[in-house]
Amino acid sequence: MEKEKVIEVKGLTKRYKNLIAVDNLDLNVHRGDVFGFLGPNGAGKSTTIRMLLTLIKPTSGSIKIFGKSMPQNRIEILKKIGAIVEKPDFYLYMTAYKNLEILGKISGADISKNNIMRLLEMVGLSERYNSKVKTYSHGMKQRLGIAQALLHDPELIILDEPTTGLDPQGMKEIRELILHLSKEQNKTVLLSSHILREVELIATRMIIINKGKTKVEGTVDELLNPDQLKVTFEVDDVTKATELLNHTNWNAETVTNEKNEIVFQLSKNEIPKLNKYFIENAIGR
Amino acid sequence: MISLTSIELSKIFRKLRTYIGFLAIAVLVPIVQVSLYFQGENYVNFATRNLEEQFMFVGNLMNGYLVAYLILQALFIHIPFLIVLVGSDLFAGEATSGTYRMMITRPVSRLKIAVSKFLAGFIYTNLLLLWLAVVSLGVSVIIFGAGELIVLRDKVYIFAGDDVIWRFILAYGFATLSMTTVFALSYFFSSLVENAIGPIVVTMAVMIIFIIISALPIEILEGIKPYLFTNHMIKWREFFGDPVNYNEVFYSGSILLGHIIVLFGITSFLFNRKDILS
Predict the structure, then answer these.
(1) What would you report as the CA-atom Rg of chain A, rounded to the nearest whole angstrom?
(2) Cis before residue A272, ω within 30 degrees of 0?
């Protein structure tokens, strides 16, 4: 039985005048996943996350979170989400404790001293709870960012490059925290990063995007096993391509006519061969 | 909403810039008071010079009421600058610091955020005017004493000491409406940009341009003068006339209220649709 989809994104597109930041993106995150959202800088990861959280409006496409449409059910959905979007920014003139208290109040979270101190303890900031955030290092702000994301005990945690600027020990601690949240507290985590290594260590499933488009999506085992790659070919004529494929040993896994996409399960070696076959038979894109 | 507004107030009052307004009033008003303490008789003599042949003036004309009236008249153009310091920071400050993202990813509607920011700014504006009233009227009465209020407008008005306080209360009330209009303008500009300096400059520029247009005796500009809110802001002076021209007060008050409602409405609408890119 397929797991419940916590995030279901279809055909998500964000266009800024001549720039397409996110292009027809599909994304599915299942309950309990630590979902790696990989891509180089400028690939469209943060734009996608901003659209998921209603910071920006999509040009087209649909977003469902917990089975409900965004932004129509925005408040109901956001009650169950904790997030860091890009770098965590706080009211620098306030203490860490006061920042969490304010953000917790807005979220309707438990803002008792016990709960706030427990979170600060979890991210290793309890000794500096009364220091103004302007005195914090970047790494400390990142950790405070995670604490604020957990304030209202969300079911889904969206972390946009949470280890940026951290030293190796800090990165390890964040990874361990994410694993703890996933395994011990049963949270679903969407983790964006541009570092494959970081994601593969903790993610169960992942997607790689570039220039706003999906490159590959699947379980980490599938994607990191060269014999189990799920590869999407974008072609100009799906009908002609599928007809041609009938005379070969290549079996398409799924064919999406409206997007002109054909998905294959291929080994690394087979990819250039199939690509060459398409080119030789005038299937282009 | 109360909780959100208290959070916004807490943000406002934890910033140093908030206290610039209170500090400026605490410095400027005593300067005016000290100046009038030593040279205020000149003003009284100027106001009464044409009347001294027919009337005899006795008692304390250079009193706390006159000082408060003169301070209100002198500082009325400058108070807006102190208001926009805070108003311009309400949205733009969140964009500059990146805290917009933290706010808007919380389960609260953008409209509620906009309303709470407006209410907090409105409360700040009221507190600043209350501070002005306390320092200019309260302290002046303590220093100079009470008495009849002599006001030099199109003609000279002299109000009995027991006929003054209600005029000040209504004048400060009207001044609150005027300053809320200025605040609403800075609040609107603040929602459009990501740096608070821009809205401060633009709001003040709009005010200065409107005041200059109002002052220019050019026929072609006469048609637009009634629509400039700066012309209506100064109608608190009507309370220092006899009889009080309530028609004028209500008309100007409704124009200012209209400005506030429209500016708040546009700001909320735009903020609701705004892409948060900071």
Answers:
(1) 21
(2) no
Pairing of strands A213-219, A252-256: unpaired
Identify the CA nearest to A99 among candidates A74, A76, A128: A128
The residues near B80 (Cβ < 8 Å, ≥ 6 apart) are: B179, B182, B203, B204, B207
Q: Which residue has the tokens 């209209």?
A: B258
Which of chain A's residues have a Cβ under 8 Å away from the Cβ of B18? none
Q: How many CB atoms lie within 10 A of CB A184?
A: 8
- DSSP state, B234? G
* Alpha-carbon gap: A92 to the closest alpha carbon of chain B (Å): 8
- Contact indicator for B251, B229 with CB cutoff of 8 Å: no
Given this model, what pLDDT does residue B131 score?
Answer: 92
Q: Max Cα separation, chain B?
A: 73
CB of A40 within 8 Å of a chain B CB? The answer is: no
Beta carbons of B101 and A89 less than 8 Å apart: yes
- What SS3 state is found at B161? helix
**Whose structure tokens read 């001293």?**
A113
A83 vs B: CB within 8 A: yes
Q: Which of A54, A42, A136, A48 lies closest to A92, judged by CA?
A: A136
Using 50, 70 and 90 to split pLDDT, how confident is the model at B59?
A: low
Alpha helices by DSSP H, listed for chain A, are 45-52, 74-78, 96-107, 113-122, 138-150, 168-183, 196-202, 220-224, 238-245, 270-280
pLDDT above 70: percentage of residues in chain A:
96
Residue B40 or B130, more confident: B130
- B14 touches A at CB < 8 Å: yes
Under 8 Å between Cβ of A149 and A84: yes
Angle of helix A138-150 relative to helix A96-107, nearest 10 degrees? 30
Task: Report the pLDDT value the prediction gives residue A195, as an integer from 0 to 100.
Answer: 79
B84-128: per-residue pLDDT in tens? 988 899 998 888 888 888 888 889 899 999 999 999 999 999 999
* Interatomic CA distance for residues B188 and B203, integer angstroms: 9
Task: Identify the closest residue of chain A to B274 by CA–CA distance.
Answer: A56
- Is residue A156 within 8 A of residue A7, CB to CB? The reply is yes
Share in percent of chain A as helix, strand, coil (round to 5): 35, 30, 35
